Amino acid sequence: MCFTQAMLSQPRMQSLDNPAAYHVGLALLGVGGVFVLSSFLALGFTGTFLGDYFGILKEARVTMFPFSILDNPMYWGSTAIYLGWAIVPFTAEIYQQKASQAYKRS
User: Fold this and answer.
1) Residue 27 CA neighbour count, 13 Å, CB half
2) How many domains does the chain have?
3) Cis previous bond, 73, omega within 30
4) 11 domain residue, yes or no
5) How many Cβ atoms are within 10 Å of 105's Cβ, its own excluded?
6) Does residue 8 lie within any of the structural domains?
7) Which of 44, 54, 58, 91 is the most exposed place for a label (fewest CB within 10 A)?
């Protein structure tokens, strides 16, 4: 909730106020979520959070999805999620305004 409030309080770009931008934002959130979640599942808790820092490494380099597509899927997925969140709140305002206008007309 705090994240949404912070995003809604930011200045808005008028060029992002359209349904296409909203759908692109949702797609980025979805793709980013897949990369992050599948990276976590491929590495496990230890590989994700403790591996490098404590020297707990896998016996061999992980090459299954998503590492078969990207070298750093966790970073790319997180970046896509943040970019998606940056786009979605701008367009969410459109639908709130449209709903309030429709309510005022009736």
Assistant:
1) 6
2) 1
3) no
4) no
5) 6
6) no
7) 54
